[in-house]
Amino acid sequence: MVSTSNLQIHIVEEKDAAKRLDVFLAEVTGITRSQIQKAITEGLVKIDERVVSKANYRLKPGQKIVFVPPIPQESELNPEAIPLDILYEDKHLIVVNKAAGMVVHPAPGHEQGTLVHALLHHCQDLSGIGGVKRPGIVHRLDKDTSGVLLVAKNDVAHLELSRQFKERLIEKEYLCLVLGVPEKGKGVIDFPIGRHPTDRKKFSIHTQKPRDALTLWELKEAFSYCSLLLCQPKTGRTHQIRVHLTAIGHPILGDPLYLRKSRLSKIPDKAMRALLKQTPRLMLHAWRVRFTHPISGERMEFVAPLPEDMTVFIEKIKEVTRA
């Protein structure tokens, strides 16, 4: 492919023979087929110097396609030079290790300093999501949750990753510090989740509009009065891990919504009680993700190491446990 300003020139190879014109252009440009089809009907695609108006035109080897892709609108958000921990990046997607405390999307009260603002500054090759030059966030992490996050750079990658999430083909694993030690080494939590009946900020297993939710958990390490768990959410409900672990009696340490302070006050060990009351933040970390690359089809896996604030806090817990 050769690009002159916004003009693109593609030569059809043998492997692409007999492909539909709109399918081929969607694959090589990262633009959705609907946008490609619109460009074709508007006369913005030529094959061997002749305008082609049919999206289902079948290609032949050696043909030269000249395409003028739609220019994505600039985002209304201002890019911000915020440091990012990049685990992987190519022209279709980026994998970020999100820091705790960083909001993903702009929202009232968080109009600046979000992950989206940082990505707009970092990514110079965004081809547009829905016709707007912006990163495609395909899943979210709460503000105080750290860890691995997938972001699409173009429509094709965004649609495919969204499909994988919807069909539960993407595997996610979280590490979290919870109150108490489970009696068993592993388990399954299968409680539907929905809006809390009285508190609109919270979600609950006691709800008027339940949606199925499934979480697998495994005990990784036990301490006095708390433990480190590995959780695998098989569904993607808001606050799922937080609500599910609370439901089985093991709320996540530092959770301002679901961990009742009275639970901590009942810990008989004075030193441990004082320490757990000083938990620096929600002790939840998106540790690992596995997915299929939206373009190449390669199975990929990325791990975000446990952040320093959690490792330091775990060491403090171990010290008090040993004392």
Give an overview of the whole structure.
By secondary structure, the chain is of the alpha+beta class. Among the domains are: 2-67, RNA-binding S4 domain (Structural Genomics Hypothetical 15.5 Kd Protein In mrcA-pckA Intergenic Region, Chain A); 171-289 and 303-322, Pseudouridine synthase, CATH 3.30.2350. It has helices at 21-29, 33-41, 115-122, 155-166, 240-247, 261-265, 270-276, 308-322; strands at 2-4, 7-11, 45-47, 50-51, 64-67, 73-74, 86-89, 93-98, 132-133, 136-137, 146-152, 171-179, 186-189, 194-195, 203-204, 215-222, 226-233, 284-292, 299-303. The strands form four sheets. Strands 7, 8, 10, 11, 12, 13, 16, 17, 18 and 19 form a ten-stranded mixed beta sheet that branches. It has a five-stranded antiparallel beta sheet with strand order 1-2-5-3-4, with no helix packed on it. A two-stranded parallel ribbon has the order 6-9. A hairpin with a 6-residue loop joins β18 and β19 (299-303). Residues 1-5 have low confidence and may be disordered.
